[in-house]
Design a protein that fits this description.
By secondary structure, this protein is α/β, with parallel strands linked by helices. Helix content is 43%, strand content 22%. It has 8 helices and 7 strands. The protein has helices at residues 3-16, 33-39, 62-89, 100-110, 116-121, 125-132, 151-159, 199-209; strands spanning 22-29, 42-45, 49-52, 96-97, 136-144, 167-177, 183-193. Strands 1, 2, 3, 4, 5, 6 and 7 form a 7-stranded mixed β-sheet that branches. The longest helix is centred in the middle third of the chain and has 28 residues, at 62-89. It is globular and about 50 Å long.
Length: 218
């Protein structure tokens, strides 16, 4: 069977089987969050710090892992922004979200090496808010047991007869205010899902799970 036939087959399978996810989470909201919420107008979503722990049977180099982590960080930032933007357009939030293109451009201009993630690790949250001219920033870390790729790459893995198992994803997301860089909200969760879970589905899951706890909701 050709790769394209397998790809078509897995598209059909994807329609029938959505990821089965199980998760557990902890939430922290600062006691004085309402004070910050009343003053905040614009929030930026930073690229997430992504780590990938591939299974031993994967023959990938560290360079390939770093490249996949960079791609996942960008994809998750974009997917998260899309989800928040949709909520903003429906009037669900008390703040607006800075366009991630503007966020990344401003970070890249400030980074000497042109690497935004390296820059972020060397700045306080207050300094980042000042550089982006926003009231607060959403940031976080994500640890993947395996890369979460496109349906085409998943089909290719099956073509190579690499057996699938569940992904485990640990996501820790935080909001820091700009005046003192104080942590005002944190959501930490671990979720498991099928082999074809995507960063888009993960972002939707995060937004859905935090619906009752996201502090900027009206």
């Amino acid at each position: 069977m050709s790769y394209f036939a397998i790809q078509k087959c897995f598209r059909a399978v994807f329609v029938l089987f959505l990821p089965l996810l199980a998760s557990c989470a902890t939430v922290y909201t600062a006691p004085d969050f309402s004070h910050h919420q009343a003053r905040h107008k614009t929030v930026a979503i930073l690229p997430f710090d992504v780590s990938i722990n591939p299974e031993r049977r994967w023959s990938v180099s560290q360079q390939q892992i770093d490249q996949m982590a960079s791609e996942q960080a960008e994809s998750f930032q974009r997917a998260l922004y899309t989800q928040y933007l949709q909520g903003q357009q429906r009037g669900r939030f008390t703040v607006e979200f800075q366009d991630i293109s503007e966020t990344n451009t401003l970070l890249t201009r400030k980074a000497v090496s042109g690497n935004a993630l390296t820059l972020l690790s060397s700045m306080t949250k207050s300094e980042i808010c000042d550089a982006l001219k926003v009231d607060a920033v959403i940031s976080g870390e994500m640890v993947l047991t395996k890369p979460m790729g496109t349906l085409e790459s998943i089909a290719f893995l099956h073509f190579l007869k690499i057996p699938g198992s569940t992904n485990e994803v640990h996501v820790n997301t935080s909001i820091h205010e700009g005046d003192q860089g104080k942590l005002i909200w944190n959501y930490d969760f671990v979720t498991q899902g099928s082999h074809w879970a995507s960063v888009e589905s993960l972002a939707k899951r995060l937004i859905r799970d935090t619906a009752r706890n996201f502090p900027y909701r009206k």
